[in-house]
């Protein structure tokens, strides 16, 4: 199993995890759509992560996508054609206990598993002759996985897209009433995500809703302001909130992603 440089096991407390993860299972099976493949990626003994790829061409850009909380890979069966419409392959990853994955989600395993998922798809793309660039994208909870990979594999990733992402998990927990200060965590742990952000020098695209009621716009702005690369762009979707950002900004949302992956 690939290990992250961060030891987040100190955060794997039941009182934290019940605030962070809302897994749901998927018993629907793979859709009968052309270009769709399901994968079960082993991450630990008897534990695998379910992933689904939506392929439109071997020379198209590839987007490895980590979805938001409460979502599962099959939720993106209807979204994938929109990515196909801009000429991008979509590779969607679940978390432990979500969709058809096994295991139980924790913060440390979510970060560690992102490495295994990344290496798996890098190998698949290489072995099957895909020539398009590889991008990583994370929405909401998935922004933590995307930022982890963007920080660690800058020579292999052509850019990172963060949608409705956060720069500080602890501020979010505090906002919803969790007594973060009672945990007596080190500053290193509290600032681990921001430290990653400040090390990213590949192209970055930030997309955030103007009235995000779960992860405030200030979080997206903090990411944008702290990433050191000058190859960065931010789209604020007007009048949108956390869960309707894609629909409210449909043309701008996919337009800016298209420009980003084909730049």
Q: Total helix count? A: 10
Radius of gyration: 17 Å
Category from helices, strands and their pairing:
alpha/beta
**What percent strand?**
15-25%
Q: Indicate the overall shape.
A: globular
Note the gap between the termini: 34 Å
Q: Main beta sheet: strand number and arrangement?
A: 8 strands, mixed
Write a concise synopsis of the structure shown:
The chain has ten helices and eight strands.
Q: Which SSEs are present, and which pair or pack?
A:
Elements: H1 14-20, E1 36-44, E2 47-54, E3 62-66, H2 80-85, E4 89-93, H3 107-127, E5 134-139, H4 142-152, E6 159-163, H5 169-175, H6 187-190, H7 192-197, E7 204-209, H8 217-226, E8 232-237, H9 245-248, H10 250-261
Parallel strand pairs: 3-4, 3-5, 5-6, 6-7, 7-8
Antiparallel strand pairs: 1-2, 2-4
Helix pairs in contact: 3-4
Give an overview of the whole structure.
It is built from 10 helices and 8 strands. The chain has 263 residues and is α/β, with parallel strands linked by helices. The chain starts with 13 loop residues before the first helix and ends with a helix. Helix 3 (107-127) packs across helix 4. Strand 7, helix 8 (217-226) and strand 8 form a beta-alpha-beta unit. It is 33% helix and 19% strand. It has an 8-stranded mixed sheet with strand order 1-2-4-3-5-6-7-8, sandwiched between helices. It has helices spanning 14-20, 80-85, 107-127, 142-152, 169-175, 187-190, 192-197, 217-226, 245-248, 250-261; strands at residues 36-44, 47-54, 62-66, 89-93, 134-139, 159-163, 204-209, 232-237.
